[in-house]
Amino acid sequence: MKVEYIIIHHTGAEEKDAEQVRRYHLSLGWRDVGYNYIIERDGRVVAGRSLAIPGAHCRDAGMNFKSAGMAVSRRGNPGGFYLLTVSLAHFWMDQSGTIGNRQGNLE
């Protein structure tokens, strides 16, 4: 998949790590965690769903087929974690569009 956008999310739930996020998404009947990367509460970046498989993080405008989803495992306002995510996104891509989770619907 050619990644044209990075969409930044936060879990907004009690999951303490990427594995709990994955188990929750699997319990919904999804084939894997919906995000391509998860930044855990300690700042560690964990790989999620392969970029070779369409995501399950934003259906609007076909974004699951042309974006990478990065989620911050953090309840409430993630503050500095968003800055970390944006920094990683810009490091990872030469050109990117960034869309917040209020601008797209989750699967």
Offer a few descriptive terms:
five-stranded mixed β-sheet, Lysozyme-like, disordered C terminus, 107 residues, alpha/beta, 21% strand
SS content category: alpha/beta
Total helices: the number is 2
Percent of sequence in beta strands? 15-25%
What portion of residues is helical? 10-25%
Task: Give an overview of the whole structure.
The chain is of the alpha/beta class. It has a single domain (5-103), classed as Lysozyme-like. Helices cover 21% and strands 21% of the residues. The chain has helices spanning 18-27, 80-92, and strands at residues 5-10, 37-39, 45-47, 67-72, 97-100. It has a five-stranded mixed sheet, covered by helices on one side. β2 and β3 form a beta hairpin. It is globular and about 30 Å long. The chain starts with a strand and ends in a 7-residue tail after the last strand.
